[in-house]
Amino acid sequence: MFADFTVRKVFAEMGVLGQIRALEVTHGRLSEFNNGWHPHYHLLLFCGSGVDLARFDGPQMKDWAVRLYLRWAACCEAAGLGTPSFAHGLKLDDGSKAARYVSKWGLEDEMTKGHSKKAIHGETPFDFLRAYLVDQADKQAGALFKEFAETFKGKRQLHWSKGLKKRFAIGESSDEELAAQMDDHAAMLGTITLDQWRDVLAVEGNGLVLMLAAKGGWDAVAIFLESIKGKGQRTDRQPENNGRSSRLSRT
After folding, report:
1. H helices then E strands: how many in the chain?
2. Is 180 exposed, middle or buried (0-12, 13-18, 19+ CB in 10 A)?
3. pLDDT at residue 147 in the model
4. Range in 55-69, 161-175, 226-240 the model is least confident about
5. Of all helices (H) and strands (E), which one includes residue 167?
6. For 27, which DSSP code?
């Protein structure tokens, strides 16, 4: 799609220098209609400093969005997929629209940590893993996480357009170099067992554990773990799929 003439023309009008593309996947098994897997891209577009920001007004943004959507819809149809609606197929915002959201999560997190987010209107693959840890009777959650892992193993989920890293003087680091880096000085406070982690997930206490560790040390965490002991041992939830199923395709 990004080599398409219309897309390149729109990007040129925007003054786009390059883009970072992140792939994110959610699933709608808990929604009313269960539309199954929802793979989608988050694109961060970098525009030149000389771009006239006044051009990014409502009508102009709508024009760009419509033109990009039409090309995206055509690509989906050519790939044998259904035609996405304009409301859900493509969303184009300038940076100011995302400022409040980015200040909470961090733009770098939005682009690189989709696997660790908790979806609002669906579930991420790691929501499935959390659900299965809490309740091993939820076989569907385990099966869907396995399907995701098998499909996306070895797949590149973050892509920089050609020349963008060089433009911003960002060097490449090997896996070994990244592993050797220590951005924060960490100290071992304690260890949480698998059963204890199931208890934490059952009460959605992930963030609370971190807060307690930061403010009260391991003693505070241990008291909390004792107070929720056994919460994650229930196995009476029966998963439903509304009679529908979907599969991810490996390409």
Report:
1. 11, 3
2. exposed
3. 95
4. 226-240
5. helix 164-167
6. E
Instruction: Give the CA distances from residue 246 to residues 32, 115, 119, 140, 249, in Å, rounded to whole numbers and listed in that order.
Output: 15, 20, 19, 12, 10
Residue-averaged pLDDT of the chain: 81
d(CA 165, CA 174): 15
Nearest CA among 99, 129, 97, 124 for reference residue 113: 124
Question: What is the rounded distance in angstroms from the CA atom of residue 108 to the CA atom of residue 63?
Answer: 28
Structure tokens at 66: 């419509």
Kindly list the domain boundaries of the chain, sorted by start residue: 5-172, 185-233
C-alpha to C-alpha distance for 127 and 115, rounded to whole angstroms: 9
Give me the residues paired with residue 39 across strands. Answer: 25
The CA distance from 179 to 170, in Å, is 18
Q: Is 239 exposed, middle or buried (0-12, 13-18, 19+ CB in 10 A)?
A: middle
Q: Which of 127, 110, 140 lies closest to 40, judged by CA?
A: 110
The string of pLDDT tens digits covering residues 85-123 is 998 889 888 777 655 554 444 555 555 565 566 666 678
The pTM score is 0.65
